[in-house]
Specification:
4 helices, mainly alpha
């Protein structure tokens, strides 16, 4: 067996899902599984949305960044003649 053929990540997705599902069921039966309250779920969703929004913002350049890239000054845009 080669090194690449070992481990959870190298398994077929369906097999991974089956194994993970068994672990989740066992944790619930044992009483150690985390169960989300509506407040926890709301907070987690808010954080995920904020992180996603920040990634989108960082990819879009601001007007100031564009001006800097093309070499414009504020004075260049105010002169009309």
């Amino acid at each position: 067996m080669s090194k690449e053929d070992r481990g959870f990540a190298s398994m077929d997705r369906d097999k991974q899902r089956e194994i993970a599902s068994k672990g989740g069921r066992a944790a619930h039966e044992k009483g150690t599984a985390h169960e989300w309250t509506s407040e926890e779920a709301r907070e987690a969703g808010r954080k995920g949305g904020m992180a996603s929004h920040r990634r989108k913002q960082s990819k879009t350049p601001t007007t100031e960044q564009i001006d800097e890239l093309v070499g414009r000054d504020d004075d260049d845009t105010s002169k009309s003649t």
